[in-house]
Amino acid sequence: MRLIHRLTFWLLTIGLALLLAGCQRERLHQQESYVFGTRVEVITWGAPEPQARAATAAVLQEFDRLHRAYHAWEPSELTALNTAIAAGTPQIPVSPELATLLADAKAIAATGDELFNPALGQLIALWGFHTDTFTPTRPAPDALAAAIKARPSMADLTINGSTVSSRNRAVQIDLGGYAKGYALDRAATLLRQRGISNALINIGGNVMALGSKGEYPWRVGIQHPREARPLASLPLRDGEAIGTSGDYQRFFELDGERYCHLLDPRSGMPARGTQAVTVLITPRPGAGTLSDAASKPVYLAGSEWRMYAKRFGIDHALRVDGDGRIEVSRALRDRLQFEQGLSATVVD
Predict the structure, then answer these.
(1) Strands 206-210 and 241-246
(2) Residue 63: other Cβ atoms inside 10 A
(3) Cα–Cα dist 41/58, whole Å
């Protein structure tokens, strides 16, 4: 049995790849780090080296702050909130930022019929994904049944200013399917504040573009969920964000079965039937956050993926089903260049 947590970050990254083919690399400034359990990369184009270095350092510092503030199992503001909820504390003070994140996550969860459900921290822990030293194992049946019966959801939360309460003590918040997208938006804000107009921010395959790379748009690749190559590549334009959810990103195999970290709140089980989903978010407020969070209900929706994408106003989306068949929306198909030998069925 084995846990697989893919962190490949040469040309191909988890879910998405930055394709840096081209010339004039001397105009690129690139810095990397390891945050949110994955490798992150910030690339700027055209800015003077001192300016680019200071701006990217500020972004990486912000990533580290977010990682520490909202960690799901190491001591953080989030674990303090979860402890208070479990204890039945009626009114729990939180920072204004966390209150805003929870309100936004609650709205996204409602739009997606709670398939995106950050309240499932207890269930995620039962499956063993709340640890850096993982032992693949199935949860005890009684514990799993109890966690499912409790039905924690974001709808259980009441957020009033900077105070949070929960009507369900089983709610345990895990922002792992949200935080990387939020960090993209924060990075874009910090870079623009520091005069950086052209950049690409990559957090484990969630990517946002600012401006362009000289005369050309930034170009990214969509990772093949079963092979060490991209499915396709596409240009990513100013203010756009792209995110992928896949069963190959963090999973373990036990007795020949694959168990991924994407849990279906309806069954309490790791999701089946879809290998990967990619969504592209056109420029809008919170585009980075949406690229992360909205990919979860689209992934879990299975054959109804297109309907759920439309609920979030997403026209550009792609799904690889459990058998490896590729389906793509017409709007995204017009942007894609598929790798040799690969093709997709257009779904309106």
Answers:
(1) antiparallel
(2) 24
(3) 13
Helices (H) and strands (E) in the chain, counts: 10, 21
Q: What CA–CA distance (Å, rounded) separates 112 from 64?
A: 29
CA dist., res. 180 & res. 296, Å (int): 13
Residues 6+ apart with CB under 8 A from 12: 221, 223, 228, 229, 230
Contact predicate 99/292, CB 8 Å: no
Q: Is the pTM of this model over 0.85?
A: yes
Residue type, 171: V
What is the chain's alpha carbon radius of gyration, rounded to the nearest angstrom? 20
Report residue 26's pLDDT band, with 50, 70 and 90 as the boundaries: low
d(CA 65, CA 338): 38
Long-range contacts made by residues 84-90, C-beta under 8 angstroms, separation at least 24? 85/164, 85/166, 85/169, 85/171, 85/172, 85/173, 86/169, 86/172, 87/169, 88/169, 89/165, 90/165
Non-local (6+) Cβ contacts of 257 within 8 A are: none
pLDDT digits (tens, 9 = 90+) for 229-267: 999 999 999 999 999 999 998 888 888 888 899 999 999
Return the ∠ at Cα 326 (arms to 278 and 200), rounded to 5°.
30
